[in-house]
């Protein structure tokens, strides 16, 4: 009964193996030939060493002449009854039961020897059964044979990037470890930084250097990215070919196969024939990955592939495929998208319309402009020129075809709703001529009649964001409003800011914070590039100081504080050090205890900034003490 | 001598402390840090003040001579607390010249000196007390009487256990309901009374087996057989070969005094620390540390224990080597050992030599022949490929013939994926414990041409 790991009826079987030989059937278990498998450990059991049949048996033999499993008394020398020997066919079988016949031992044990009888002959049946069970168990375990190997996984592609410096690798482990516990601890107001919040920028920095992580960190990295979609792109890039290889083996990490730089799909994208084959036979996720990969390098090839099977795709698949065209979108896609405007699926139609409106030169954009321009005229009859709006009276079939949604959300007027959609999708280029040859800035400055200003400016803002038009965005934002009451920028300033170049964004927000403080600045700060430019960082620190002086509690600013931890340039820490000293008395207008809380909040901020400085120094492989000293400069 | 961050983190009593300590291992909250060299059989000392949320900073100090000792003014009941861990971590990361000016023994702040003096005084008292105790124990007559009393109790317990086992077999498993299996908890309690804790813990397992899945009667019969074998072994007593008799005694639950062992022969070698594994058993944390002798190729297992909230004292760095003397517990297949004198600090380690799947099974078979109650046998596998599969993992010889299944009880562990990631489909060296249900991987070594191999704990 030399079992394999995983043989069915043997005792204590393990799951997952394969049956190698046929001895599991039971009746002739003990007679199974040894040596049928690649290794025969039973043979190697040293003689006399197994107490089950040997040494213990000897004591027993003296008492009552034979332990089950030792072979017939007299036939075997006491003490030589090694199970391996009898397995090898030397031993005869005492009584009417084969000692290694696990099934019959088991059924006797299940029913009870009082009813069933045991293997012992005239001896106490129960004791004899226990003897036999012990021998069989040890024999089986000592004689275990290897399982048959499953197919080996194909090796991972080599990763040629340089390894992370050791301190940085340790830091990664710490950041990932902290993430795992973050859910439970609730992230209270401790003075220690929240490491999980630093993971995104750590990943970005590590990827900027082009490092490869230690393979053992990959499961933690992929788990982190699975839980947080904002980490995925960075994590998958860092994980590299080994990470994608691993993701192919674990369904939990499938996302890594369809984002980032694509693995197999990326390889296929390099070879038109392979791409064609994968497109025709691949799983949905693989096909999306392939299309996304192609759109990065060769948008036309991606489009051609999509065209080739467009008619046969299911509606929900069409929608996702269409969405991948966002990457590398250009005039060459227009014809295809124009045709998709008549798609059977409404979602596909509206996505096609949205994509077309992102192409300022497209026919759809012109059609929408034509409609939009017709609604807006310049009235020169009054004191100064003003814009007059005549919103559309109906939504005709043509408008609907071009993606205009007929029914407004509740609480909005139909006509204003239609106008908004027309202006939003219209190319911004036509407005100058329509409104007297003015620049965007001049147009925005024009008065608007009858309260249409907010609708019109809001729609222009959305168009500027959609078309990525910095000139219009700048005009619509205007200079940061200087008086709090006038802080009404039409549309969403944070989104308009995202269209502007980095330095302009930072400059605008700097002025805004200087004028209005922090209470409305959260999203705008979020739109600024990290780390914050020097002047912006100073403005935020000054504004925090003003809030502290004013005596409000720091948690009114916890959002901005959190952002500051992640976004302030670490070298600004020096400017914060004065605020971390032991608090003096609360100011005259302060809420009770506020000064102490502020000190604590600033300490946390400084600690996080120092940690970030250390993290970056670890990645750069530079001297840590230098980094810390630089941060402390100003103490 | 400066510790590595891994060594420091190994002191953490639990995962939460580990994390909290790691967070404090940055310069921000610390001031007044310092270190002074070893002197007078104790030290080196490391100290510092950590700003927390309160007005007064916490003062933490550590003595790293001998078993590490800590003190901190914080109210935490963890030991060591996160401040002590953070302090040591900071110290382990950095150049002593930067944040830890080495002070002479007298240049330490007063509060450090006070603690140090109190500590050496307490140490002397303890040494004196131990001396008295030893003197009190030295009455050989009393010791022999105690031993005889215990032997009698154990023998009675073993007879009772034999009876219970036979009764169970006469009744049959099928006729035993859930309440019937609970009786084994009582039997276990009787074995505790009989001062045979080894028998007790095996008997206690019985009650859980019927709930353990489809093939439980087989497992139950196996456990009955093995416990019966152990009882018979104990009854055979001196008729057994010496080694086997010692194994039986240990399995029944007789302990061997470490000091006595250390007074006997010791094996000196450069021991590679293969793996360390903590498991919580009730309020007690058991730490298993596996070693492999670089010269003699001998395996050893060290056990150390930590009561609730404390980490076990013994903390050896995985992947490094330690020149030390070990004294082995007697047995037919000696594995468990106690750590004797160490010679110098741990040095760099290497990837241990390993065997193929077939040889590993041979070794396990031999060990089992010597000690049938063995749960797992330490094995270094070389050149195996981990194969993840939804039905169960395998470690397979590189040429694809033979494979070991991973113990199904370990399948949920994240360490398995670290193993697969480290391998990347290529053969690796894996250390683990081989048992009758399969292999439990504990450590692997990164196989990267560009860098020196590093031990990866699984």
TrEMBL record, chain A:
Q: Which domain of life is it from?
A: Bacteria
So where does this one cross the membrane?
none
What spans are recorded as compositionally biased (Low complexity)?
A: 35-45
Which residue ranges have biased composition labelled Gly residues? 1-15, 22-34, 46-56
Pfam families cross-referenced by the UniProt entry: DUF5691
Recorded coiled-coil stretches? none
Q: Where is this region: Disordered?
A: 1-98, 145-166
Q: What is the protein name stated in its UniProt record?
A: DUF5691 domain-containing protein
Native species: Streptantibioticus silvisoli
């Amino acid at each position: 009964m030399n079992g394999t790991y995983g043989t069915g009826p043997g005792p204590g079987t393990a799951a997952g193996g394969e049956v190698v030989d046929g001895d599991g059937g039971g009746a002739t278990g003990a007679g199974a030939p040894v040596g049928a498998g690649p290794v025969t450990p039973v043979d190697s059991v040293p003689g006399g060493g197994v107490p089950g049949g040997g040494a213990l048996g000897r004591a027993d033999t003296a008492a009552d002449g034979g332990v089950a499993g030792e072979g017939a008394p007299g036939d075997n020398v006491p003490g030589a009854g090694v199970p391996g020997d009898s397995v090898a066919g030397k031993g005869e079988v005492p009584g009417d039961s084969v000692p290694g016949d696990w099934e019959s031992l088991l059924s006797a044990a299940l029913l009870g020897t009082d009813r069933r009888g045991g293997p012992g002959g005239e001896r106490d049946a129960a004791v004899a059964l226990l003897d036999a069970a012990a021998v069989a168990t040890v024999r089986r375990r000592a004689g275990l044979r290897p399982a048959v190997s499953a197919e080996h996984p194909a090796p991972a592609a080599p990763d040629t990037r340089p390894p992370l410096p050791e301190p940085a690798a340790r830091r990664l482990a710490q950041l990932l470890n902290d993430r795992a516990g973050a859910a439970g601890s609730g992230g209270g107001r401790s003075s220690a930084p929240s490491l999980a919040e630093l993971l995104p920028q750590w990943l970005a920095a590590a990827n900027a250097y082009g490092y490869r992580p230690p393979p053992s960190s990959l499961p933690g990295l992929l788990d982190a990215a699975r839980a947080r979609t904002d980490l995925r792109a960075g994590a998958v890039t860092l994980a590299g070919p080994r990470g994608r290889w691993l993701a192919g083996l674990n369904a939990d990490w499938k996302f890594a196969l369809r984002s980032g730089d694509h693995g197999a799909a990326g390889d296929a994208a390099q070879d038109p024939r392979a791409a064609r084959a994968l497109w025709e036979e691949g799983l949905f996720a693989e096909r999306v990955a392939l299309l996304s990969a192609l759109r990065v390098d060769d948008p036309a090839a991606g489009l051609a592939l999509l065209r080739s099977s467009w008619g046969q795709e299911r509606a929900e698949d069409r929608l996702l495929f269409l969405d991948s065209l966002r990457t590398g979108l250009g005039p060459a896609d227009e014809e295809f998208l124009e045709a998709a405007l008549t798609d059977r699926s409404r979602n596909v139609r509206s996505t096609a319309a949205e994509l077309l409106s992102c192409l300022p030169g497209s026919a759809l954009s012109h059609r929408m402009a034509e409609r939009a321009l017709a609604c807006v005229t310049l009235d020169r009859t009054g004191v100064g020129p003003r814009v007059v709006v005549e919103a559309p009276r109906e939504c005709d079939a043509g408008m609907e075809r071009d993606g205009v949604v007929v029914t407004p959300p509740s609480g909005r007027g139909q006509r204003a709703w239609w106008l908004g959609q027309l202006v939003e999708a219209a190319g911004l280029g036509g407005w100058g001529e329509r409104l007297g040859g003015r620049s965007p800035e001049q147009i925005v400055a024009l008065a608007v009649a009858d309260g249409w200003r907010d609708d019109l400016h809001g729609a222009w803002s959305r168009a500027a964001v959609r078309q990525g038009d910095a000139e219009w965005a700048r005009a619509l934002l205007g200079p940061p409003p200087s008086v709090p009451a006038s802080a009404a920028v039409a549309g969403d300033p944070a989104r308009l800011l995202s269209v502007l170049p980095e330095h302009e964004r930072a400059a605008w927000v700097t002025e805004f914070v200087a004028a209005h403080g922090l209470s409305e600045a959260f999203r705008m700060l979020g739109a600024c590039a990290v780390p914050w430019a020097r002047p912006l960082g100073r403005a935020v620190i000054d504004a925090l100081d003003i809030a502290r002086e004013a005596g409000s509690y720091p948690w009114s600013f916890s959002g901005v504080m959190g952002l500051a931890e992640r976004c302030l340039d670490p070298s600004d820490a020096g400017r914060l050090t004065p605020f971390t000293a032991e608090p003096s008395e609360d100011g005259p207008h302060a809420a009770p205890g506020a000064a102490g809380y502020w000190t604590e909040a600033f300490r946390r901020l400084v600690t996080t900034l120092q940690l970030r400085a250390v993290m970056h120094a670890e990645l750069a492989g530079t001297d840590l003490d230098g980094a810390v000293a630089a941060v402390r400069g100003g103490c | 001598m400066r510790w590595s961050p891994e060594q420091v983190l190994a002191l953490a009593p639990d995962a939460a402390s580990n994390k909290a300590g790691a967070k404090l291992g940055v310069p921000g909250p610390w001031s007044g840090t310092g270190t002074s060299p070893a002197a007078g059989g104790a030290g080196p000392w490391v100290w510092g003040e950590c700003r927390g949320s309160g007005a007064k900073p916490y003062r933490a100090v550590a003595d790293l001579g001998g078993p590490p000792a800590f003190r901190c003014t914080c109210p935490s009941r963890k030991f060591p607390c996160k401040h002590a861990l953070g302090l040591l971590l900071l110290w382990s990361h950095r150049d002593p010249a930067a944040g830890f000016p080495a002070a002479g023994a007298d240049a330490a702040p007063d509060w450090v000196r006070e603690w140090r003096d109190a500590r050496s005084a307490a140490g002397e008292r303890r040494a004196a007390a131990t001396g008295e105790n030893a003197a009190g124990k030295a009455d050989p007559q009393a010791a022999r009487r105690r031993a005889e009393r215990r032997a009698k109790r154990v023998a009675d317990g073993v007879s009772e256990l034999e009876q219970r086992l036979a009764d169970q077999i006469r009744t049959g498993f099928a006729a035993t309901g859930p309440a019937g299996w609970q009786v084994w908890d009582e039997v276990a309690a009787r074995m505790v009374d009989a001062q045979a804790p080894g028998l007790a813990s095996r008997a206690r397992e019985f009650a859980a087996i019927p709930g353990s899945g489809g093939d439980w009667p087989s497992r139950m019969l196996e456990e009955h057989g093995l416990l019966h074998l152990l009882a018979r072994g104990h009854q055979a007593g001196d008729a057994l070969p010496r080694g086997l008799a010692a194994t039986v005694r240990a399995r029944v639950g007789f302990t061997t005094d470490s000091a006595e062992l250390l007074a006997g022969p010791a094996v000196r070698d450069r021991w590679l620390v293969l793996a360390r594994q903590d498991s919580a058993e009730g309020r007690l944390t058991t730490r298993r540390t596996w070693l492999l002798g670089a010269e003699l190729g001998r395996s050893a297992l060290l056990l150390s224990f930590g009561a609730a909230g404390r980490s076990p004292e013994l903390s050896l760095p995985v992947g490094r080597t330690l020149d030390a003397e070990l004294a082995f517990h007697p047995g037919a297949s000696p594995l468990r050992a106690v750590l004797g004198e160490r010679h110098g600090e741990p040095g760099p380690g290497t990837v241990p030599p390993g065997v193929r799947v077939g040889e590993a099974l041979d070794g396990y078979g031999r060990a089992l022949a010597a000690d049938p109650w063995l749960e797992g046998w330490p094995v270094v596998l070389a050149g195996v490929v981990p194969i993840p599969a939804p039905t169960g993992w395998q470690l397979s010889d590189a040429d694809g013939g033979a494979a070991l299944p991973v113990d199904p009880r370990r399948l949920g562990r994240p360490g398995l994926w670290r193993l697969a990631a480290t391998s990347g489909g290529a053969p690796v060296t894996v250390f683990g414990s081989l048992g009758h249900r399969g292999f439990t991987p504990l450590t692997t070594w990164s196989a990267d041409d560009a860098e020196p191999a590093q031990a990866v704990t699984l």
